[in-house]
Specification:
alpha/beta; TIM Barrel; Arc Repressor Mutant, subunit A; 2 domains; nine-stranded mixed beta sheet; three-stranded antiparallel beta sheet; 42% helix; 22% strand; globular
Length: 375
């Protein structure tokens, strides 16, 4: 099985926290779509004929696409790849784009999973992040999507926002869990270099929340999600009734995937590729049949690091038996030695040869991952 990710780089305006590649120049949409179709045709053998189980439209803001533009992309994918009949087809959208008419066009196109970028139910924080929608539009988008027949609804929330109180965070979570969603991705705000938030933080005009406040918001997230019947199956992802993101699950389990569009990444089991993160260069290089991506062949050590990076984040954890089968006894000894101190400190636990993070370990997972990496 394999997956396809399509990066739609257009946004109507830029959010102050986002470091994903995007442009607000939508006049290039037609030329971009032509280049995207060429890329799909040129790379149709990348997944070596495997069936496509998931398709994911990310960005940027895919919901800037018109119905006809979306249909063109899906038609090209169906021409060059064998997409399974019951494939999960996810489409990221902003709430203010999801009118009842647009929702029906997405349904007609074959989209069966919506990922709606809510981020907050407080207008003060939405304005601070330069989001286009308000809290009422967020609620209405979810309700309209459900009414339009989208049962597999995922939403995003951000915590750790400057000025966000614990009470406000609790209200946002309870509002979210009262709505007909089955999946939540909740991320702590990260200050990425090159974003407006990063610049303001360095200038001192934006004040970061304290670590204690961030920890409290993370713990509240886990408590509220559990009470609402949402299972935490990955550090930032929660699902009701086992409705996990199949696309992200494929990333974490090491399945092949093809990334189309500027800045998109691909993995075929032996190497990684990443497309140039510049729309003009991306289009020109494809049009002139020149290389538009970089590539690296992965060593056994790099494969091991990838395994740690993806598996430690999930509820399924790190399997010592799998490490032994895939990488050998030396790697098992390395992992067991590193894990010992984290088990003693209460940040990890072991059951039947499987290592998983405890609640305390989840919040410092990045630091733990670094220790397991082989350099």
């Amino acid at each position: 099985m394999a997956g396809i990710y399509i990066h739609i780089p257009f946004c109507r305006q830029k959010c102050y926290y986002c470091d994903f590649y995007k442009t607000v120049n939508s006049s290039q949409t037609g030329r971009f779509l032509s280049a995207l179709k060429l890329e799909a045709s040129e790379r149709k053998n990348y997944t070596e004929g495997e069936n496509i189980r998931t398709v994911y439209f990310g960005g940027g803001t895919p919901s800037v696409l018109k119905e006809q533009e979306l249909m063109e992309i899906l038609d090209v994918l169906n021409d060059h790849f064998h997409i399974e009949e019951d494939a999960e087809i996810t489409f990221e959208a902003n709430p203010d784009d999801l009118t009842p008419v647009y929702l029906q066009s997405l349904k007609k196109a074959g989209i069966n999973r919506l990922s709606i970028g809510i981020q907050s139910f407080f207008d003060i924080h939405l304005r601070k992040m330069n989001r286009r929608h308000d809290s009422q539009q967020a609620v209405r988008a979810i309700e309209d999507a459900f009414e339009a027949g989208f049962e597999n609804l995922s939403t995003d929330l951000i915590y750790g926002i400057p000025g966000l109180t614990l009470k406000q965070w609790q209200e946002s979570l309870r509002k979210m869990f009262s709505l007909p969603v089955v999946h939540l991705s909740a991320y702590h705000l990260t200050y990425h270099e090159g974003t407006a938030f990063y610049t303001w933080l360095k200038k001192g005009t934006l004040k970061e929340l304290s670590e204690n406040e961030s920890v409290s918001q993370f713990n509240l997230l886990l408590d509220e999600a559990s009470q609402a019947g949402f299972e935490q199956y990955e550090i930032s992802n929660f699902a009701r009734n086992g409705v996990y993101s199949k696309h992200n699950m494929a990333y974490w389990s090491g399945e092949k995937y093809l990334g189309l569009g500027p800045s998109a990444h691909s993995f075929n089991g032996t190497s990684r590729q990443w497309n140039i993160a510049h729309i003009d260069a991306y289009m020109k290089l494809i049009e002139t049949d020149e290389s538009f991506f970089e590539e690296e062949q992965l060593t056994a050590q790099e494969h091991f690091n990838e395994y740690i990076l993806t598996h430690i984040r999930t509820k399924w954890g790190i399997s010592l038996d799998e490490i032994n089968n895939r990488f050998g006894e030396e790697y098992v000894d390395w992992v067991a030695h590193e894990a010992e101190k984290h088990i003693l400190s209460g940040k990890m636990m072991e059951q039947k040869g499987v290592l998983t993070l405890t609640r305390e370990g989840l919040f410092v997972s990045d630091d733990l991952m670094t220790g397991f990496m082989m350099v």
